[in-house]
Amino acid sequence: MTTLTINSKRFQEDFETLARIGDTGDGGVHRPTFSEAHLAARAWFRERAEADGLQVQVDGAGNHSAILRCSPPGAPALLLGSHLDSVSHGGRFDGALGVLAALEVLRVIQEANLTLRFDLEAIDFTDEEGSLLGLLGSSAVAGIISQAELDNPRGGRQLLLDGLARAGLQEADLLNAKRDPAQMAGYLELHIEQGPRLEQDRAQIGIVSGIVGLASYLLTFSGRADHAGTTAMKDRRDAAQGACAFTLSARRLVMEKFPECVVNTGALQLLPGAFNIVPGIALLSLEFRAPEQDRLDELEQAILELARQEAESFDLQIHFEPKGKHLPTPMNPLMQEALRKSAKKLGLKSMEMASGAGHDAQALAGLCPVGMIFVPSVAGASHSPRELTRWRNCVNGANTLLQTVLVLGKVK
Amino acid sequence: MTTLTINSKRFQEDFETLARIGDTGDGGVHRPTFSEAHLAARAWFRERAEADGLQVQVDGAGNHSAILRCSPPGAPALLLGSHLDSVSHGGRFDGALGVLAALEVLRVIQEANLTLRFDLEAIDFTDEEGSLLGLLGSSAVAGIISQAELDNPRGGRQLLLDGLARAGLQEADLLNAKRDPAQMAGYLELHIEQGPRLEQDRAQIGIVSGIVGLASYLLTFSGRADHAGTTAMKDRRDAAQGACAFTLSARRLVMEKFPECVVNTGALQLLPGAFNIVPGIALLSLEFRAPEQDRLDELEQAILELARQEAESFDLQIHFEPKGKHLPTPMNPLMQEALRKSAKKLGLKSMEMASGAGHDAQALAGLCPVGMIFVPSVAGASHSPRELTRWRNCVNGANTLLQTVLVLGKVK
């Protein structure tokens, strides 16, 4: 069993085929959840898994699985996977790498005709990136999704409903996609780091210790729309001023007082939005992250207070609409240990690190033991067409995943 | 002749009928150029003018005219008018008041069966507000529109082409709509002030001395899109930071060093525009105004330099795309004198003032003598559903317009 390795050529061919679905022509892909390209990628995954002789399953949240029965009847399943959706104009590695590595691991185990302590399931989770809600499929599997969240998703209610309809899914089934913990042996995910630390430390494998917590809000600064030629500067209640002052001071706050955290103004809309009208309304998409729960709470309090102050200083009203919150999540210690041992066995240099990005593992952590492997991102680029992981590192990551499955699944 | 006055009831009925076309339900109207509501307003104007026995004419720029032949053959025409388009979600007075007052003046002269030194033309100019280009119809009449401007309009080329198609207009005809100066006796426009000065000074009529100059630019700040969870704050090239810093410092610059000027960031788009992606690009719609030519030049230089500095301080590239420029324009002294005399004759308190807003008169100033009347805006509100001018002030303005036509047109 120790000599099993993945088939790099087959794995790479799959990777390149998948990267052409939603190809943006600049090295990236555009596959927002339930877009035409995303649905095409999922159709390709189903066909590929069936051609490989695996059993295909789609659950009520639209999660796509390829299943290998390789254990005695009644055994639980170890899930391996990631997601096939991308951010808008993102990269070809984020998510796709983990799904394809999972599929490849199943094929290698199938070809070796091994019996393990669990069945294997290569899973593509729905809407990890959050075009609609974020971690939608994994939250549904974990049974932690609520109707309130579905009523007010970060992408807007209509986008969610339209997307579900396009994918042929029912909203009610999302709430019923929860798995039985007794049937879950665990979840392992291979993912690109999306930051520069592995590269800086010349490590080949990142063993994820935990995932940072995150909160997102839609902030509405409200002032008064006025004629931009006839209204004196001093008489304006310009919503853009408050939103811009907040965007600058939130950055300063985090850099000075929360150096281990990050904040982002990802979108900003001024209304009515004409050259010659002072903006009466500014809609600001805010997100911030912290590695520990108490720091996330402190940051949340400080940042919302800052928004209140900036609004007040420009005579604006402010409204906060929570758009999602994920608590910081530690990975399972036994999973971390198995990953570390496997990397060592393969002669790969590994390091422990926190994940600044959110992942499906955080939704699943309450359901079963979870673990994650990172592989290096060139220059740390991510959520961008510049995203790149050297192919040898992709192979190292997939082999570490395979080795960990063997370590965990060995029939004693 | 001295006892002629406009028919307030008929004028008001027209005003209220017109305000229902594109009514936004909150006291305002939404009639962007060539929108369904705008085209409906123009259709109503044609029908109304025809029902009044006036000759209707539409030129190559889509300007709509109602013509009263009231002079000996071969005489030029005095144009009275304004515009029926509105800004997005604007008020019911801006533009509409001037067009309806012009129509009413023609009806009163027609009913009195007077002979003047010129024919009268009540004109509705196309796209004064600039959903597409700004002062489009009057610039075409003045022959100062260029293909280069049409190729790069502030609303984007496609919006212009789609709009022209909806209105049944040809682009080539825009360039051929120029009038012969010999056929132009002048242009007079009644308009709301769109600022608080008349109200503050308790004056009933504003005699416009000149129109401020204006320049608009689309600024593009370019940095790098990155993952908002895994990219350290210090490593970001966040386009939002540059755009927001500029929006704040442009306001400070104007308030401190150009107190007679104004500046506006009317729209701001961050791309790709997701909660979890550091914005790589920020598109900023900038407009600034100054009452004198040399100050407009100084302001332009200072403000673009400021944008360069702010971009540099956040390690961003910057690109400036000029989106329009209108020089400060004095009104014709003889027209101003005729307006002042007329207001005095009607017992109305008038004051001289500059216009902070742009108007079609500035495009026409090179073609013929131009003059403008302002009436008070309650609380100075404009480009907003809160826009309001008391009806007695609307009537005062229309009577001043009528009186001035009689003063200028009297056959000696």
Topology:
The structure is a homodimer of 412-residue chains.
Chain A: H1 8-19, H2 36-51, E1 55-58, E2 64-68, E3 77-82, H3 96-112, E4 119-124, H4 136-142, H5 147-151, H6 157-167, H7 171-174, E5 184-192, H8 197-200, E6 205-211, E7 213-222, E8 226-227, H9 239-257, E9 262-271, E10 277-278, E11 281-290, H10 293-313, E12 317-326, E13 329-330, H11 333-345, E14 350-355, H12 360-364, E15 370-375, H13 391-409
Helix pairs in contact in A: 1-3, 3-13, 9-10, 11-13
Structural notes for this entry:
Two copies of one chain form a homodimer. Helices cover 37% and strands 23% of the residues of chain A. Chain A is built from 13 helices and 15 strands. In chain A, the strands form three sheets. In chain A, strands 1, 2, 3, 4, 5, 6, 13, 14 and 15 form a nine-stranded mixed beta sheet that branches. In chain A, strands 9-11-7-12 form a four-stranded antiparallel beta sheet, covered by helices on one side. A two-stranded antiparallel ribbon of chain A has the order 8-10. In chain A, strand 3, helix 3 and strand 4 form a beta-alpha-beta unit. The first copy, chain A, is elongated, with a radius of gyration of 23 Å. At the A-B interface, strand 8, helix 9, strand 9, strand 10 and strand 11 of A face strand 8, helix 9, strand 9, strand 10 and strand 11 of B.
